[in-house]
Amino acid sequence: MIRYRALFAWMSLVPCLAGAFSYPALDTTSNWSIQDWGFTTGQGFYFQGTGKRVWNGPGQPETKTVFYNLAVVGTRLGGNSHPLQSQDFMGEMQGDGYLAKYGSFKVAPAVSLVVVVFFMDDGKFDVNAYFTGDGYASGQAWEVIFRVDYDLAGAGNNIAEFLWNAGSEGRSASPPQVPRLEALDGRLVYAPSTGIPSYWAASAHEITLEYPPLPREAGSGVENAGFARILNASNPQFGMVLWGDGATPLDATFKAYGSFDGNLDPKADVSTTLQMTGEAGSFPRYAYAGRDQVMLLKLRPPTAGVTYKFGGKLFQRGGSRPLAVSVHQHHPDGMGGFGFDPDKVIRYTQSGGRTFRNALAELTGPDDLALSRSGEGGVSYLPYDGYAQPGNAVTEAQLHNLMTSQRDYSARSLENVREWRLDLYLVNWRLQGEPDAWEAMFDYGGAGGNGIAREGAAIFWPSIGGDQDARVRRASLSALHTVGLALNMGRNGLGGIMSLADIDKNTVRFNTSSAPGAPFSEVDWYRTAPEAWVKPGRFGVGSIPGTMPNFVPR
Amino acid sequence: MKLFVISLTMACALTFADAGMAREFRTSEGLARIRWVPQASPSSDSADNANEKAAPDSTPDLSVLVAAGDGGEALLDIYFLDMITGGELRFPVKVSYLREYCNRTGTAIEGALADEAVIAIVRGLSKELSVRMKSPGAGSAK
Known about the structure:
Structural class of chain A: mainly beta
Strand order of the largest sheet of chain B: 1-2-3-4
Oligomer: heterodimer
Helix content of chain A: under 10%
Distance between the termini of chain A: 34 Å
Low-confidence stretches of chain A: 1-19, 280-286, 447-451, 542-549
Mean pLDDT of chain A: 82
Number of helices of chain B: 5
Distance between the termini of chain B: 9 Å
Helix content of chain B: 25-40%
């Protein structure tokens, strides 16, 4: 029987490159489309009808709306509002791989706000603002207010998730997650901490989230540290991640569209219910209060430099969720010649040979599965030096250090918001204190205990018994098993749907019919359950006991 | 797309307001003012040192501005006046774009301190980036 446990540590990642993709896919070679932009005293510096082209198939383009309206509506200083009064100048430029719009606007006597918005062909956008003029002095606590009216793919129904953790609750009685009570004062202050798991959540009521500057690699995560992600509710494969930068604190206020009256100091009214989507049952139900929302962003003075910044990136996934798995291992010379082979037949069944690859491909579809392994594609073999000698025990801290030291913090890696990424470490070590453990999940708590999907797992080769052929087969099965656990398939609170727990009986296949005691199958779970519940990563779905909202598989 | 030339009076008011943070380059053919807009301080020591060199109150030259880096994300606020045509442009450029442009065109940053060289860089950069000013209230379809 496989034994596994959780490590109290974060998983790291090295670059994993997806070679293939399925349609629809974001067109990363064309400019964003902007129907109109400019300045009026009523709207501020605005962008109307901003969208991006996706390919629904070869030769089948479609432009999908991102922002119905994105605008800088004004500024504040010392508790007073200063809307954009007049323009000094506006301009646009277009370069290789991007276009940009910019302008300078009077906000007070001899004080202007300069705003530069870059729209990148790869789906990224980057908003910069800074004050200038004789009347401006560094140290003044100016705030910049943006109105973000998102309308992903024109549906009107959007899922808006935000980041929070238990330390964020402040004066609230409970986290603001449907259908539980929201923060009593409608305001949460995000408390980044390595000791507190963070979660994605959506609210059924208006709410404000206050975020400190979040460096891109905050939390040693595999992704750019985001504060919100917004998805098309009916088709959550299209969406965007929003992030700040390492210097700009910001408040994000989610309001009902009709309740925003232009006040430049927007407050969440906790008594205002966000409008429910009118659609029934065919999309994730955990965040159904997404219709006709608007987000107000208040950027506070940067802690370094003078530039106020936020940005984000779009993603368009295929019908399923693209998964990129990298398997890292020690050199085969120390492991009896074993080199992980995703195409090795683990078991022959009536439907043919079952492998690591074809089992996962049934979740993702063959075009949305990317596998890489040590010795290929730039994935190096794991080192022994500085950790432990072959076959010896390794501590959790050492393992954690090994993984984080290999993490890729390049922009390219941090901004990969399309793929779900997962790393497996097949090590020639035993786990100190638990020499019989075969697997360890990288998590903040007990295995399956807190609802956090994991970015990866370790598999301990010396602890796997049997002759070489049996060990190889078991190692491959363990790798598959840990992928299922990392995707939260074994989570108690959501129903134990993991069918790969018993390697002696399983079919090496994720089930397509409902698992015992659960209203959905593993494939349903992977493809349609709320992203916050399934996606491997450092953020979970909430640790509050109680019945979770249902979701209805498509 | 409509081109809009802002008035000289307005341009002067805008650009001279930050003269203390900008460096001016002037020839008989053009005038450029380049202002560095400090971003968040990078975490590395070397980048911090570069930032110190290009503190906002200094009058940095191009080589220092480019060295400042901020990962290439720092903005340069460029004002350019063509003395012959009277055309004016103002546009932000990320340091990385300027660096790439100089590399691509074979322009040595260290050798670009002469006003003539800077004017040529700014003129070429504005054309490469298709910089256009926009008239008040005019829409744009792109």
